[in-house]
Structures are given as structure tokens and as C-alpha cells.
Sequence to fold (954 residues):
Amino acid sequence: MTATDHSAPVPVRTVPSTVESTVDGTGRRRFSWRRPAATSLTRLAWSLAVLAVVLVMLAPVLGFLLVAISPRAFGQGDAWFTLAPLASALSGSTLQALLNTAITGVCAAVIATAIGTALALLFGRTQVPLAGFWRLALWALLLAPSYLEALGWTRLAERDGVLAALSGTDITWLRQLVMGPAGVVWVLASRGVPFAFLAVSGVVRGLGRDYEDAARVHGAGRWSRLRITIGMLAPGLWSALAIVFAEAISDYGVGATLAAGANFPIATYALAGAVTNFPADYPGAAAIGWLLMVLVLFALLAQRMATRGRSYAVLSGRSRPCRPVPLRGGRRVLALGALCVFFLLALGVPAFGTVSASLLGNFGSADASSFTLQAYQQVFERSDLLGPVLLSLRLALITATIAVAAGALIARVLARGARARRGGAASLLDLLMLGAVALPAIVLGAGYIFTYNLPAVTALGIQLYGTLTLLVIGLLAGALPQASRLLMGSFAQVQDSLPAAARVHGAGAARAWGTTILPLLSGSLLWAWLLTFADRLLELPLASMLYPPGQEPLAVAVTTLIAGYDFAGGTAVLVVACLGILAVIGAALVLFRLLAPAGWRRWEQR
Amino acid sequence: MKTRIRSAVLALAAATAVLATAAGCGSSSSTAASTAAPPLVVYSAQGYAQTVIDAFQKATGIQTKLVKDSTGPLLAKVAAEKSNPQWGLLWADGAEAFAALDGQGQLLKGYAPDVPLTAAGQSVFPQDRSYVPTGITLAGAVLYDPAKTPNPPTSWQELLSPAWRGKVGMPNPSISGPTYPFVAGMMSQLGGEDQGKAYFSQLKANGLQVFDANPDSLHALTTGAIQLDLAQSSTAFAAVVKNPGLKVAFLNKVSLLPSNIGIDAKAPAAVQDEAEKFAAFTLSPAGQQAMLAGNPSGDSLYWPLVNGVSPRQGVPPLDTVAYQTVDPYVWGPRESEINSWFTQNIVK
Fold:
């Protein structure tokens, strides 16, 4: 930014442009400036940026996938080219596992999006009693790793588990329900609800009530109005469906606990089995990775077909934030009841299971006399955990900051690409980003080893493997798709006319962005940062594959505790860490409320 | 137009920043490596590894770094690094994996510290000296609660009787590293792979429960979901330390399950030299002391294989147990096939 930028009014268009008319999602004809063809310089810059993303973030994904067809290139077999691993992945128990994965993924995505949308509308448009408490509960749900939730259910419902000990009888039907496909779908769906909520609520926030009021004026009933609202929420809904589906099919925690116990094989479990078996079958694991990517491709195609050719830019200079209406009488009772039931099933029950397990000294068995706080005392007395805690904090801070900055850029590219209907590079980027979500982290970790530990790569002087940098890059690769996807819904809503108006009035590009878009999106950006921070702090599979010798991150230290039969100690550390994260989130939100300009808070997440 | 160029520049700057951090952190570690003697990188699943490393660094001044994980993930990492190994020394339970690594040419051969060994110790040293056993545990100890199970079984065949229907549990060998030696040992003593598969199929028909890893089967034992937990001896003794009400029985026969050190065949000579010093140190009195002290409620509950060193209290003399030695060079190469068979036929 130079001084001249501010002093002289800058023409918005320097080359002739044309006006085109489009029909947006509400059926309203609107006019917009068509962008002139990009110059070769811009193209070059973008190509370089994409190349950087591909090299740093996605080469490992491709590296791992290549193992499936060319094992020898990575020292994993004799064949330079073979299709045998793919053929074997498409047969027998692995094929069954893939089908199970696809079905549970779709069910989880639909359930999570339905609940997430209901929550987003409830929080965004009504004054729910105890809104702060519910929001905190949603965050707690987001933070709990899926294996912890699955473990909580198992501890409750297992034979002679906590529930049987409390009630005195063995509840067989509940055990069969929980430790089966239904339990798997529920844990995956409830894990996905916060993602769906965040994706949809960004859109709900920007929607305001103008369109609904207009419909009302024209005599639309409650259901018609709801249909119109849902129609305009489409980018958020499809975003939510796609991300929950990708998250669900890549989840390993549930596969290793509930699904494994119920003899309900899912793809990630088969994939991890191929890796942890000895000798590790990386080509087989990579073949399953390919098929998971294909599933994501289907999800993306569905998303594109549903939202193609429509614009959802509803956030303009005239948009007003929606005024939440108070809930009264029966509606209030209904809303509170539904919230209670959801959070009890999604959070309360598993939390009870987990916390009770961490209070039990004796390998987590239920016995009234064995409840003890000893494990929690030890957490604060262990000096060997201080190093891992500080290291993980540092890694999470760095990763979250870079992920939100880069995620915002990517979200902007994706949102523009979708709007302009000509985003070839954008849709490729979208596929790669969601593909990175769909690949289980253990695969991503192995991919980094394959790519950055190749003798040819180290011969080039790239010594990244075994450094904290590669760990940060790995964590970033895992976080970037989420961050950009969560921000995309909000970016899709901002009309280009806002920064354009600022430019007409003489603001430079940065100032235009800072005074128009940043205030509108500051809430979303803050939440995306907090989400990434919390999610990365306890990340395990990538950390255990990539951590530098002698520098243990927190999740690895906790796993070592549990593997060393200190079950109570391990879960106690996890519970304390989750409480710590909640404290950081609370502090950040309070600071935002105190320090951010009033205009920013106007659009803050409700 | 200008906005686009600016945002392109911004994107470039972000990408460059990532690359620059990468280069920055990468170079700091590589310069450290080039100026001083190369550090010894130890990949270990042993609970006492850090204590032994601390003692070793104090005694020799050799900089040693630990990568700690369970046996399964560690071996997966070793396999992923096959084209360019980053470890200098691998220290884990189970000779089969080491025999298989030796078969792939990944281990340095011909080194064995000169120490007086017990009979059991001598029997687990490989012919070609491609790895160094450092201690002994047993595969297939029977852990039970005498309050709930006053009469534990006395033979492996007894487990197939209706009396033990649905009451026996064990970890999954394709997830829990030290469980494969138990499966291989059973197959070996029953006369071969086919007989062994028949035995496990019968055990399955009699309600055998398979858990992911040791902590899960221990948990099932204490809740009463199973009455007998077939576990590694150190795991069983560790459970007794935490819950003195439990007891350990050894059926006729159980298999020796040594912990071993392997040295990377591709490592620089200086690192291999450091690794040999480390292996020698673990079998020295000071090293054994550190191994016995490092994880008192876990891996330290092993039988030393050096003459004159006693196991920890609570570990009975090894000669009171009927044990056998399993040839890792026969059973190591079959691990993948047998584990896959086990997962598909016994676990499901």
C-alpha cells in the first residue's frame, strides 16, 4: 500500500468491462460487473500460489496415493506399476467396509446438517434461554475427539459397564443399539453437528430477515417462508453436507471402538489395519485412500449440481442484522427440551462415561469404592507433561494463525470461482482440499514421510522430515480444508459492491478490505481460528508420525500414558486439556467483545 | 484488476512465508547436525527407554533422542522410512519383527555385546547377530481374579471346554505388537500353522473375545466381561502391581518374548558405533539398573538375561515356568498372513 493509493481516487475499472445479468437463487434478476480477462502477470502469480499449495500441502497426498500403483518407487514392493492393491481393495471385506463407510457417511451428514441447521436458525433468529451455555456445549462437542465420545458410550453400555453397575441390570438392547451401526452413525453425526452449525450459521447470520419479511408481506405462510429461507441457505447446507460427509468417512476413532466391537467394518479401520499390521501394507492402505477420495468426489459433484449457476450473494450495504425474536410459552419449552435431549445424547452421556472412567483408579472398571481424584492430582504434579503441553500450545497457535489467513484466501477464491461459474482451478482446489479431509490423518502422515523422506528430495537439500516445520505443515494440511470450508459460506455472501464502493471513495485495496469485508467477517474469522486452535491442540495421528525425535507433543504423551496402563492418568490429562481449551475460547470471546470496534460486533456470531 | 494482483501478491507472500518458516526451521536442525557428532535417534516402545537414555547420555556423553510410540505404529514408521531410514536404533518387544527386518536387509549384522548370559538369554540370541536381546518376557500369561475365578485352567486344551465358554479374552495381534509372538508360539507348540489355526478357531467357537490392545482386555477383565486375559507377562505383572487382588498363571508351555535392539544397516558408521555402545550399555549393570527402575509398574517387570541380575520383586524365577523358544526366522515372515487370517476369522 503506497501513499498515492490513498491520495488519488482510483478508478475501479482500468479496462473496459461489460455488464451481464444473472438470475440469483431468489429468482431476482441482478446486474453485476463481469471481470475482465486476467492478465498474464496475474495468471502467473496465481499459478505460483497454487503451485506452493500443491507442493507444500498436497504433494504428500499424491505421494501416498501413488504408493498404491507404484509401490517400488517408495521402497514398498517390487512392482513399478500395478493395479493389484486397487483390485484387492474392491473385493471381499474391504469392499464391504467401503460400502458401510459410504452409507454411514451419508446418514451422518444428513442428520448432522438437519440438526446443525435447526440449531443455527434457533440461535441466529430467536432468543434462546441460556444461549451462552448451549454455545459452550457445542464447542465442548467439537473439542471431544470422536474416540472419546465412542469410548464414553462403550463404558456406559458395555457388559458390566457404568450403566449396569448403576441400574443393577444388564441392558442388552441398549448395548446392541449403541455398539452397532446406529451407535456409529450417531457418534459421527453428533461430531458433525458443530461443523454443520458453523457452516450454516455463517449464512444465517448474513441472511437477515429482509427476504423473509418480503415473503410475508406477499402473504407467504410459515412453511413457505421456511422454504424460502432454506433455499437461500443452500450454500451453507451443501457446505455442511460435504464437510460432515468427508469428516465422517475419514473418522478413525469410531471405527476403532464402536464399529470394531460391533463387527461392522468401516474403511478407515481396514486402512489402519493395513498400516499397523506387520509388515505394513502401504500399497493396500493407499488403495483404500484412493477409494475414499472417489467418495468425496461424488459428494462434491452433488454439491456442485445442487448449487450450480446460482448466486447467493445476499450480504450488501443495505443488509441489516436480524433481530432475534423472544421464544414464549410452548415454543420455549419445546426448544429447551430439544436442546436438552440433543446435548444429553451427544455430550452428556459420553462425558459421563469418560469422566467416570478417569475417576476410576482400576483400569476404568465401575466400583463405587474405586472413585478417586488421584489421577487429577497427578496431572498437576507431573513435570514431564509441561514440555509437551507448551510444545502443543505453540504448534496450535502457529497452525491456527496460518490456517485462518490462508483459509480466508482460499475461501475467497472458491467463493468467487463458484459465483463466476468458471473456476476450473477453484474447483480443483476445492476437490484437493476436501480430499485432504477425507484421507485419514494416518495416511496424510505417511504421505509426508514418503514424499519428504525420498532420497531424491533430501538430495535436493530439502531436509524437512524430522523437523517441527514439517509437523506444522502437516497440521496445517489437516486444518486448512476445515478453515477454508467454514469461511466459504460467509465469503459467498459478501457482494463485491462493498469493497468496490470503498475503492470508488478512494480507499486502497487493503483499506477497502479492512473497512468492508473484515468487519462483516471478523466473527467468522475469530471462530475459525478458535476451532482450528482447539482441534489441532490434541491432534494425534499426524503428530505421532511426524514429531521430531525428543520433542513429544501432548497427544503423543497422553497416548503413551494410556498404553502404559495409566488409563485414569491419560483420560484425566485429556479432560484437563479440554477444560483449558474452553477457557482459552472463553477468554478470546470476551476480549473480542471488549476490544473489537462496535461495527464488527454487529455481525458477530449470535 | 489491481485488487486481483494485490491478492495474488498476498497469496504469494503467504505461500513464501510458509516455505520460509519451513526452510528456517529445517536449516536450524540440519546445521546442528552437521557441526556436532550425529545424535543417536532411538525408536522405542519400551516404557523404560527414556530412563535408560538419560543414564546412557550421562555415562557416555553421546546425544541421544527418543521417538516413543507403541510397537505397531513404530514399525509402521520404520516401514514408511524404508527408502531412507531416520532411526539409528530400534528397541521393541518381539523377535519376529526383527527377524523380518533382518530378512529385508535393514539390520546391521554381526554385533553382540560380550556379557555372561543366562540359558534363556542364550536361546534368544539370533545366529547372525542381527539384533541384541536386552530382556525377556513371556507371551500368553493368564491373568485372572482369584475372587471371581478360584480355579484357573491348567492347560491350553482346557480353554476349549464349556467351563470357559465366553470367558477368555486376548488382544488383536494385528493391532497389539506383542500379541503375534503368542499366536505364533501356540501354532509352533501345537505342531504347525494349520493346527494352530484350528485351535484358535475352536477357541473362537467357544466364545473367545478379541480386544484392540492390552488396556482394553485388562479393562474387560476388571469389569467381569471376561475371566481370563491372555496377555504378555509384563502386562500381567503390571496389572497385579496396580491391583494386588489379581493373579498370574503360566500354562504349559508359554513362549519367550524378548525385547530387542536392532541397529539400522543404512545408518552412518558413526551412528552405528553409537548404537553399538547403547546396546552394550543396556546389558551392563548400570543399563540393567535403569531398565529395572524406569517403568516399575510396566515394562520393568521383565526377566534379565544377564547372569547375576535379579528381576524386580513380584516377578517369579523364570525356571519355575515351562517355556519354549520360538524360531523367529520361521514365524516372522508369516506374520502378515497369519495376522490377516486372524483378523478375518477370529476377530470378526
Q: What stands out?
A: The domain at 45-77+374-606 of chain A is CATH 1.10.3720.10 (MetI-like fold). The first helix of chain A runs from residue 3 to 7.
